[in-house]
Amino acid sequence: MDQKLTALLINCTLKPSPAGSSTEVLGEQVLDALAEHGVTADRIRAVDHDIRPGVQADMGDGDQWPSLRERVLAADILVFATPTWMGQHSSVAQRVLERLDAELSETDEQGRPTLFDKVALAVVVGNEDGAHHIAAIVFQSLNDVGFTIPAQGSIYWNGEAMGSTDYKDLPETPEKVAQTITTAASNAAHLARALKASAYPKA
C-alpha cells in the first residue's frame, strides 16, 4: 500500500444539495471502503453544477465541466453513482457520460487516451429494477473512453418495486450490499495500484 491513490465520487442524483440522497449514501459507503485501502476521496454532486450538453471538453458560455474534468483526470478511481428512474440511469448521469465522450480525442504526453490507467466502479440505487442494465451501460461507456473495470465492480441496491423505503432510510446496510462494497473496493484499489505501477503501453 505504498502508492497513494485517489478516488472521485460523481453522484448523479437528481436532487440538488443539501437534499438527502440515497445515491450519496451508497457512494459514500464505497468511499469509506476504499479508504480502508489507503484511498483518499473527492466528491462531486453533478446536478449542483452547470454542465452544458455536448460532447466536447469545454462547451463554453459558463460551462462548469472543464473544472470538473480536471478532478476526473486527477483521480485514480472513478466511483460513478446514479439513481434508477424508469428503469434507467438518471439524465444527469447521461449528461456526464456524454461529456466524458470528449476524452476519446484527448491524449496524454505519450499519445495514449487520457483515461487509460484509471479504474471505474458503478454504483446504482433505486426502488425499481434496472441495476444490471444500468451497470452495463455505465461500464461500456466508461470502458469506451479508457477506464478499466475491476472484477465485480458494480454495487447496487434495489428496493421493493413501487416501495416507499429509500436506501438512505434503511436502519443498516444489507449484508449482501456490504459484502459487494468490500469486494469492489478491494478489487478497485488493487487494480488501480497495478496500473499505477505498470501502465498500459502506447499502442
TrEMBL record:
UniProt cross-references to InterPro entries, sorted A to Z: Flavoprotein-like_sf (IPR029039), FMN_Rdtase-like_dom (IPR005025)
Domain NADPH-dependent FMN reductase-like: 10-154
Record-linked SUPFAM superfamilies: Flavoproteins
Name of the molecule in the record: Flavodoxin family protein
